[in-house]
Amino acid sequence: MDEIKNPISLINKDYETINLVTFEEWLEDSDKLSRLGVGLILDPSNDVGLIKESLDSIELIALDFRNFDDGRGYSQAYFLSKRWKFKGEIVGINAHLDQLQFMIRSGITSYQLLESYKGFNEEDYSSGFSICYQAAANNNGLNLKY
Known about the structure:
The chain is α/β, with parallel strands linked by helices. It has helices at residues 23-36, 72-83, 100-106, 123-126, and strands at 8-11, 17-22, 39-42, 60-64, 89-95, 110-113. 25% of the residues lie in helices and 21% in strands. The chain is globular, with a radius of gyration of 16 Å.
């Protein structure tokens, strides 16, 4: 059986361990890796358009939000969830508390906080805005009726 070298893994929504491969590994051998049922980990600089045609064979995509100042992960999540209708999980990893509402609005289905946030109550940060003026992956924005 084929194996993945030095696997990184995440637990999916069904509490199963999913091994992750890098964007570069996926591009090198997506046929073999898709048969192994792996997930994909993306850095903000990775061009998600290069995996658009193989989204049906990817179960889970992890987007790295380690750098608080880098918003490209939101765009990646939007393209995957809204524009290309990716059916798998989109997990925001290395997340900061202040990013949670924006991650969810952009199409992230779950997240893992940075270790430094262990023990924090994240509910206030992830429950969403009471009113959203712009449309997003998780709503249609404010709709006023007169």
